[in-house]
TrEMBL record, chain A:
Pathway: Steroid metabolism; cholesterol metabolism
Name the UniProt record assigns to this protein: NADPH:adrenodoxin oxidoreductase, mitochondrial
Enzyme Commission number(s): 1.18.1.6
All copies of domain FAD/NAD(P)-binding, residue ranges: 24-181
UniProtKB/TrEMBL annotation, chain B:
Signal sequence annotation: none
GO molecular function: 2 iron, 2 sulfur cluster binding; electron transfer activity; metal ion binding
Keyword annotations: 2Fe-2S, Iron, Iron-sulfur, Metal-binding
Coiled coil: none
Protein name: DgyrCDS13945
Species per Swiss-Prot/TrEMBL record: Dimorphilus gyrociliatus
Amino acid sequence: MIRLKRMAVGAIRSFSSKITPIPRIAIIGSGPAGFYTAQHLLKSNSKLHVDIYEKLFAPYGLVRYGVAPDHPEVKNVISTFSKTAINDRCRWIGNVEIGRDISIRDMRKAYSALVFSYGCQIDKLLNIPGENLKGVYSAREFVEWYNGLPSASTLNPNLDCEDVVILGQGNVAIDVARMFLSPLDELRKTDISEYALDKISKSRVKRVHLVGRRGPLQAACTIAELRELTKLPNCFGIITHQEVEFLREKIKELPRPKKRMMELMLKIADSSIDNKIDFQKQWSLSFFKSPLEFLPSEENPDQLGKIRFSLNKLKDNIAYPTGETVELSTNLAFRSIGYRGVGIPGLPFDSERGLIPNKNGSVINERGLYCSGWIKRGPTGVIATTMNDGFETAKTILEDINSSRIDITSDQLGFDGLANSLKDIKVKPLNYQDWSKIDMIETQVGTAKGKSREKFVDIQEVFKLLDH
Amino acid sequence: MAELATVAMHVDSREKSSPHRSRKMNFACKKLFTSASRALLVRKNLKDLPLKTFSTEILQPKAQKETITINFMKNGSKIPAKAKVGDHLLDVVIDNDIDLDGFGACEGTLSCSTCHLIFTDEQFKIIGTKPTDEELDMLDLAYDLVDTSRLGCQVFVTKEMNGWEIEVPAGVSDARDV
Ligand SMILES: Cc1cc2nc3c(=O)[nH]c(=O)nc-3n(C[C@H](O)[C@H](O)[C@H](O)COP(=O)(O)OP(=O)(O)OC[C@H]3O[C@@H](n4cnc5c(N)ncnc54)[C@H](O)[C@@H]3O)c2cc1C
Ligand code: FES
């Protein structure tokens, strides 16, 4: 009897979906790329359904776990994302890692198309001697730590020193610098994790040195982030005149954005000459230096004591060693030279470039597979860049639906067809209502402490709260 | 759950003492149910905070703002919009429900450049306020940047703008390296 009923349901389902086949699309990763791709798909095709998978218990990717806590305005993009998440044709599925909990093969069977928007999860190594010494950290991990990413919450960095060297001059490097230079009372109001705030408030750091391999023209940070550094109270910035003087001649020919950035650097260099010993803290931008080796301290062979740099000169934008070296004494260093994507089994991957090979978001030689965001383009670009990129991928998919390059068949059940297999491996998926509840509690707990939010870092606590 | 109740009570008692926080808190609670209208709420809150206090709102009925017409030009098509004098151009886009994908992502807080608009030389000169360093910094990240670019969240509507055609550029550039 039961079997008969099932057959009947199956027949009805395949019959009805023959009349109106629903394109079911899975998006893997719920950062900006995933949400912007979903937004555009849902808006442009009124039949289509989207399931967005997220390996963590919380959505929004680097907006939650990357963007600096003292930049709450940047996180306003979340309100657009939540509009997408509550769309009737959209389902957010948290705590499910694709590639581990569900294979790409099973996903392909359940959906008309898969969109990979899982970002870049690791960072580049310098690959120089001493990189494993105590006191040498990855900026990515440090960012994840102060932002409460569960897997990074145990990092517990040792910040008990006066000088910090940051290798790299991108926005992430500047975000890290600000954590040491910003007034604590500012940080206290943000959603920075409590344990990190506690640790940072006890740090003795006074000077932050941001060191770049190439010159001022190649510095990767945006002018907005650099200007923000110059406005920190009780803090002054240093740029050595010799390293930027050559700009004065060049500056007129530069396009406006670079020109304004170089003007700011020269201004900082000019005001660095004034004696500002009264200031409590200081930062510096220093150029044309590549780290060659991390050297241990004299007291402890496991602990970083200094960094040896090669002095470089530039030719055609490439840095070449001059043969001269310098050393900087420090017990704390962060490498901040870029993020890197990793592959998922069953998915084509360009390991050299750390991204999925694609054309306008369509994975090369793979029908029904797409990619979006940092894993498509590489780990550069602000959220607005990622937004455009997500829209582009969505457009490619819509074109492929219209030209029937994507199979839309009746036996694709989306998440409904996969949920049972998750039970078998004891993975408990979360839905957007679960997240909304977590979100509300985080905000309430934060408000009670005078902060914008206190993030959960322990998934067990989350499940207790949700009473799963 | 008991812990939760204490948190809520805590919040309650603060609410009474600080209207600012109460607005925030109300917002936090509403969020669960009305995430769809969140964008508007945040923006309105930001806009309203420095301007009004509770008492003046009761005493004075809201003054009717003068309305003009502004046209947004996107990919060659003209989208007319009613604009209240004194509002920001970003408000005009939102209040008129103009469908510009991704426009105003940071909700007018000068941190995204997605509200980039291009004016004619003539119009650029007429705009009442000049861009600050911070606005120019954000604009420097915008795709299709020209000398007469401005951010829609930083430009107020004035009477002189009646009938203006303002260009909405196509995209945003790749400007950030990490
Ligand atoms: C430290 C830092 C600070 C930044 N600050 C700013 C800023 O201030 N302003 C700005 O405009 N931009 C900023 N950016 C850039 C911005 O964060 C990126 O442009 C954007 O987040 C990229 O989006 P994405 O969706 O491609 O990747 P992500 O945001 O990384 O999202 C990927 C998502 O996929 C999930 N995922 C990964 N693997 C799987 C899997 N196997 N299955 C399911 N889910 C998976 C991840 O958990 C994550 O949620 C910053 C970036 C960094 C690193
Ligand atoms: S809306 Fe983000 S800068 Fe104007």
